[in-house]
């Protein structure tokens, strides 16, 4: 959104704060740090030629229209927001990239509590199209 012709730093800061608050409220009863994948489908943010309501709500609060958002953001974006990890994919066949990752309290023991597969893993495992090589990479700042 910072790209040429995008939004200014103050507007971007307001958008970020509005989006964080919208997500905090929306995920309030769907956040399970002891079982991070529980509720992951509910926390999946999608732009697929249709604007995700949470992004649209935050943009509306700073005066950005859906049309302007579609100019600033990819037309196909999936964002998985889980405790301890946020990852994304641009396009339907793009690589899944880790945007944010933090260690889980308790390390490996906490991972063993998780018995369900995450939304992101279900997507990779249950994909019905021909098999492709999908890479996982970490994005750092």
UniProtKB/TrEMBL annotation:
Protein's GO biological process: negative regulation of cell population proliferation
Cellular component, GO annotation: cytoplasm; nucleus
InterPro entries from the UniProt entry: Anti_prolifrtn (IPR002087), BTG (IPR033332), BTG-like_sf (IPR036054)
Domain Anti-proliferative protein intervals: 73-92
Pfam families recorded: BTG
Gene3D superfamilies: Anti-proliferative protein, N-terminal domain
UniProt similarity note: Belongs to the BTG family.
Protein's UniProt name: BTG1 protein
């Amino acid at each position: 959104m910072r790209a040429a012709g995008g939004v200014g730093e103050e507007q971007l800061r307001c958008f970020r704060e509005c989006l964080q608050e919208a997500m905090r409220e929306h995920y309030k009863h769907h956040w399970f740090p002891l079982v991070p994948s529980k509720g992951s489908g509910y926390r999946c943010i999608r732009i697929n030629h249709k604007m995700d309501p949470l992004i649209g709500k935050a943009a509306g609060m700073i005066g950005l229209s859906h049309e302007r958002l579609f100019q600033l953001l990819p037309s196909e974006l999936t964002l998985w927001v889980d405790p301890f990890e946020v990852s994304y994919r641009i396009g339907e066949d793009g690589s899944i990239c880790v945007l944010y990752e933090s260690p889980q309290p308790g390390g490996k023991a906490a991972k063993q509590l998780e018995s369900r597969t995450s939304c992101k893993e279900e997507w990779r495992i249950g994909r019905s199209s021909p098999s492709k090589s999908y890479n996982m990479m970490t994005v750092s700042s």
